[in-house]
């Protein structure tokens, strides 16, 4: 029965991108500077795992996180170091996806705070929610019918602190994720050691504080990113400072979280400095992956279908430094590890029976890669 459900989950993931999809554009967000100029695009073959050399898709400043509209025609990026207007707010930019994968700037709107670092699309692409790390706030913007960004709907400022005076003297919203049904927005705040929960769509699309408004993690853990299980019953949060993953049971009706497990992402005898970055659930729902910066590895876990509990599988070294992000292709066959400090993306084959990762030998130069998203190449 478990294998049958896993197969159904994989088929659903494939249908999301088109069951016959084989070739994908991969867009890489970067930190710009002496090497990077903006967003880069490569072609990826999901049958062979071949990733072609990247080309500059558009020049833009520090597009550190990306998202694609459900219509596949517009891509959105935060401008982490962008400053707009007198308030010095960060910006979110919409780009039209053109033939061949190039991008054309459509418009930019303020993110509702400083240092935007993560975004997500809700309500079938009609609302964009963005987390602002610098100001510790979360904003919501309207998305118009043509994919352009409309006026901001709301901006909510977090308040408080936690136990680490260097990293947690104030709020630092680090991600904004939508629940599978789109009714709730979950925002990891590293500075508060909390996952904030908001109801989506109140007051013309604004975010409304849920009841209860948050769930706390261990003091000093620093929640960074999260991912839902394929069935929506569990949430996996990666803790940047604690180098751990916390498992929550998720009540979809009320938008509430109940912690059930916290497990380390590092080897027992590792005594160096390391912080976590990204987390993702395999399209089959059977495996969870989290990246370590310092140990420079992907921690692989098997997820129990009934309890959501994680059991350790392996550490796969990313063959580069600072894997700030990684992405699993829609077929679940390949994983791209983005090594920010080494300026390389490394391709791994995923063992679908164990979740283990095997390097294919492909290492492509991408300047300061920190995000990757897949889009089927139009036929």
Explain this structure to me?
The chain has 379 residues and is mainly beta. It has a domain at 60-216: YVTN repeat-like/Quinoprotein amine dehydrogenase (Methylamine Dehydrogenase, Chain H), CATH 2.130.10. Helix content is 5%, strand content 54%. It has 2 helices and 28 strands. The chain has helices at residues 2-17, 202-205, and strands at residues 23-30, 38-45, 55-59, 66-68, 74-84, 89-97, 103-110, 116-122, 127-132, 137-143, 149-157, 173-178, 184-189, 194-201, 206-216, 223-228, 234-239, 244-251, 256-264, 275-281, 287-293, 297-303, 310-317, 323-328, 334-339, 344-350, 357-365, 369-376. The strands form 7 sheets. Strands 3-2-1-28 form a 4-stranded antiparallel β-sheet, with no helix packed on it. A 4-stranded antiparallel β-sheet has the order 4-5-6-7, with no helix packed on it. The longest helix has 16 residues, at 2-17. The model is unreliable at 1-20 (pLDDT under 50).
**In order across it, which strands form the biggest sheet?**
3-2-1-28
Distance between the termini: 36 Å
What is the class of one domain in the CATH system? Answer: Mainly Beta
Characterize the largest beta sheet: strand count, sense, and whether it forms a barrel: 4 strands, antiparallel
Q: Please indicate the percent range of residues in DSSP E strands (runs of 2 or more).
A: over 45%
């Amino acid at each position: 029965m478990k294998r049958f459900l896993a197969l159904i989950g994989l088929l659903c993931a494939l249908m999301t991108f088109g069951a016959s999809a084989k070739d994908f554009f991969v867009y890489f967000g970067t930190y710009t500077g002496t090497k990077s100029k903006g967003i880069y695009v490569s072609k990826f073959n999901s049958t062979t795992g071949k990733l072609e050399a990247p080309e500059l898709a558009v020049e833009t400043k520090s597009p550190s996180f990306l998202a694609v509209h459900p219509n596949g025609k517009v891509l959105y990026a935060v401008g982490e170091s962008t400053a707009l207007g007198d308030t010095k707010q960060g910006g979110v930019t919409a780009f039209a996806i053109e033939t061949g994968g190039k991008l054309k700037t459509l418009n930019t709107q303020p993110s509702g705070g400083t240092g935007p670092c993560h975004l997500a699309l809700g309500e079938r692409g009609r609302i964009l929610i963005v987390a602002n790390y610098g100001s510790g706030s979360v904003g919501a913007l309207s998305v118009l019918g043509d994919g352009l960004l409309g006026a901001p709907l709301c901006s909510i400022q977090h308040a408080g602190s936690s136990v680490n005076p260097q990293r947690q003297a104030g709020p630092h919203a680090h991600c904004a994720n939508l629940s599978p049904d789109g009714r709730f927005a979950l925002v990891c705040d590293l500075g508060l050691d909390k996952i904030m929960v908001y109801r989506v769509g109140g007051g013309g699309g604004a975010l409304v504080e849920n009841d209860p408004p948050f769930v706390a993690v261990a003091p000093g853990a620093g929640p960074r990113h999260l991912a839902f299980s394929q069935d929506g019953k569990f949430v996996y949060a990666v803790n940047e400072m604690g180098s751990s993953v916390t498992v929550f049971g998720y009540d979809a009706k009320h938008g509430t979280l109940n912690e059930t497990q916290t497990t380390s992402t590092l080897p027992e005898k590792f005594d160096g400095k390391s912080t976590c970055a990204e987390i993702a659930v395999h399209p089959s729902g059977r495996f969870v992956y989290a990246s370590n910066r310092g140990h420079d590895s992907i921690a692989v876990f098997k997820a129990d279908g009934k309890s959501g509990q994680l059991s350790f599988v392996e550490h796969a070294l990313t063959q580069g430094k600072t894997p700030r992000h990684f992405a699993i292709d829609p077929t679940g066959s390949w994983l791209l590890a983005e090594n920010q400090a080494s300026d390389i993306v490394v391709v791994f084959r995923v063992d679908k029976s164990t979740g283990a990762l095997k390097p294919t030998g492909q290492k492509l130069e991408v300047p300061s890669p920190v995000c990757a998203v897949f889009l089927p190449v139009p036929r």
